Amino acid sequence: MLAYALATGIVFGLYFALVGIGMNLVFGVMRIVNLAHGDFIMLGAFSAFWLLAVLHLPPPAAIVLGFVAFFLAGLPVYYALVPRLARAREPEMLSLILFFGLSQTIEALAAMLFGNSERSIPGRLLGRGPVHLLGQTMPRAWVYAAAVSLAMLGLVWLYLHRTRLGRQTRAIMAARQEAVAIGIDIHRISAIAFGIGAGLAAVAGVFAPFMLGSFTPALGIPLDLTSFAVIVIGALGNPLGTVLGGVIFGVTLMLMRAYLSSFADLLPDLVLILVLLVRPAGLLGRQVRRA
Amino acid sequence: MTSALLEIAGLHAGYGSIRVLWGVDLAVRTGETAVLLGANGAGKTTLLKCLAGLLPARGGAIRWRGEDITRLPARVRVRRGLCHMSELGIFPDLTIAENLDLGALFVDRATARRRRAELYTLFPILAERRHAAAATLSGGQRKMLGIARALAAEPALLAMDEPSAGLSPKLVGTVIESLARCRAAGLALLIAEQNVRFLDLADTVFTLEGGRAAAALTPDAVRQDDRLRRAYFGMGM
Fold first, then answer.
1. Mind listing the pLDDT tens digit for each residue in B174-220?
2. Structural domain of residue A105, as residue ranges?
3. Domain containing A168 — which CATH number?
4. Which of A174, A185, A230, B139 suits a disulfide with B93, CB 3.0-4.6 Å?
5. With an 8 Å Cβ cutoff, are B93 and A177 in contact?
6. Number of domains, chain A
């Protein structure tokens, strides 16, 4: 039971890292908590439902389409909301309210348009038969999701460390005013980061029905909490810390499910409180930033 | 009407309800070095922020090669050759090589590569540690990196906010030496300082007092003026 909890914990942990990384990227660049992140994921789950279960597209096509469509949709959302926020007196507080409002709006619209009933997608759409991994047997869809998550996390790393745009993104994260002073176009780079955050949410959303069993328009808030716990464990504003945060969260969740199953749903809140008490900067708070 | 590279006329600026600059006049000609003297809180940093486009001017004008740039965003000013070096001057989380690449944001690839080689020759310590995070550098080395990054942008004028801040006298000497080399290569400098040693570099000196800049003085005039000496450098000078 322990070995199974650890193995599935790592698999789910990689997926949770994907769930959280978009929110963390946006926070790192814009110092804004995007509370609509979970709703982007929820919309990604609906896209997956139509693309995979209704239109029967192959999963890789659904992933790419989801990413591109949400990336493109994220750009106007950025320009409509964030530059306005930046001019406000208390942008961080205001961002919470604004994005909470956006989250509520998206959820309400989704409920009106698509209904509140639970939907699911058959796991066999991601391949039939169980997979043996880390000495355990688990559904193929889980491993599929973990592998894609790992690949997306790798791509985020490559973007941040190996491209000109990524370097400018990291410069903004490190010293915002300095970045303006040397001529970086803050809004262009931030809009792209926001678009990437939305695209990553879409990919996380494609796998949400498989990892969570089913979904409804109300999925947003619990996913926000999960994302928040994952990125606070890792380190706010440090996208790579998210991987560590995701795996710790995943393993803890699976251990809780195995040994204390009635408390498992409390986990995001418990972990958040614990980390905020013990290491408010996150586990990788300073070291990684300085290393 | 003017031969000045940079001309600031009647500049007003501040934060919230606080007014810091009350009509500053200042001009720097091509290839010339101007030192801006002022006590802490006199408004040196505010002036340089306005110049870089980091803080909006509330009145007056900033002209660059005769053109009004008062309302232009920071990145357009950098593109035209007006660069700013803050007290921090670097991105601590990025490597030295990445810092230099970011400096050359608007420079074409071939020029940037040639420029980088020159900068590594000028500052060997940066070449040695090019893949280390800038945060691992010592205070003096960071200042070198800040200067190198500013130079990578191929500026026509570099405005510097207290390049001597936090440095030992020996390192101040090194900084002045490297700036003297840039000056010899035709770079115009506007250096906000409290350190008297920077007078050695200066063609003109402006003093900033109560949010207003006094008329241009020669370095010798500053050295010989008792009141100014007392105000800026203490008695020991």
1. 889 889 988 998 999 999 998 888 999 999 999 988 888 777 888 88
2. 2-290
3. 1.10.3470
4. A174
5. no
6. 1
